[in-house]
Amino acid sequence: NAGVTQTPKFRILKIGQSMTLQCTQDMNHNYMYWYRQDPGMGLKLIYYSVGAGITDKGEVPNGYNVSRSTTEDFPLRLELAAPSQTSVYFCASAQGRQGRPTIYFGEGSWLTVV
Amino acid sequence: TQLLEQSPQFLSIQEGENLTVYCNSSSVFSSLQWYRQEPGEGPVLLVTVVTGGEVKKLKRLTFQFGDARKDSSLHITAAQPGDTGLYLCAGDGGAGNMLTFGGGTRLMVKP
To answer: How would you classify the pairing of strands A109-113 and A10-13?
Structure first.
C-alpha cells in the first residue's frame, strides 16, 4: 500500500544549489500535483499534471520546474535555491471525476535553504 | 484567482466543547473538500461536498456546503483531544482537478 511516495524526507540546501524532489505513485492516477506549505499555512499549488507528457503552472511556479515522462513519476526540480523556498513540499495524485477529485498526499519533504 | 478564507485561524478549546470552523469565498466551487492534517504528515481527506445546501456527517463532524456553493462549515460536537490538528478546506473550480486551499484552522483540544 505505497500510495504516494516522496524522497527525500528532509534536506538542507545552500543558497544557489539545485536539487530534485522525487515523487512516485502506484495508483495509476492521471493527475499529479506539487504543493508547498509554509509554517502554519495552507497549501499553495506549484505545478500540476493531468497526464504523462502534460504539465502546467499552478499558483507559485517561479523557481521550480517539473516533468512527467511516465504516469508514475512527477519530480520537482529546484534551480538556484533561495531562502524563500524553505518550506514543506507535498506531492499528491488524484483520481475521480472532474470536479470531484479524491486526492492522496505524500508524507511531505522538509526543505531548508540556508 | 479563487480564494478561500478560513476562520478562525486558531482555536483552543476544552474536551467536550462544540466548535464550528468556517470556509468562505466569493467564488463558486464545483465541489469543496475538508482535510485534516496532523504534524509531520500530509493532509487526509475527510469529506467532499458537491451540492449546494448539502450536509454530510462523519461521526461527530458535520459538514455543510452553502446554498450558493461559495462557503462551507465544519461543526464538531463534543470535541476530543484526538480531533487536534490543522483543518483545511479546499475548493475545486477549474480544469485539471486543481484545488485551491484555504489557510487552515489549527485546532487544539485540551483534555
So the answer is: parallel
Q: Which residue of A has its CA nearest to B35?
A: A103
pLDDT score for A40: 76
Interface contact flag, A31 B48, Cβ < 8 Å: no
Q: Determine the pLDDT at residue B104.
A: 94
B60-76: pLDDT as tens digits: 999 999 999 999 999 99
Of all residues in chain A, the one with the smallest CA distance to B92 is A99
Sign of CA dihedral A5, A49, A63, A60: negative
Tell me if A31 and B103 make a contact (CB, 8 A cut-off): no
**Of the candidates B92, B88, B110, B109, which has an alpha carbon nearest to the alpha carbon of residue B100?**
B92
Q: A58 has which bridge partners?
A: none
Q: What is the distance between the alpha carbons of residues A85 and A78, in angstroms, rounded to a whole number?
A: 9
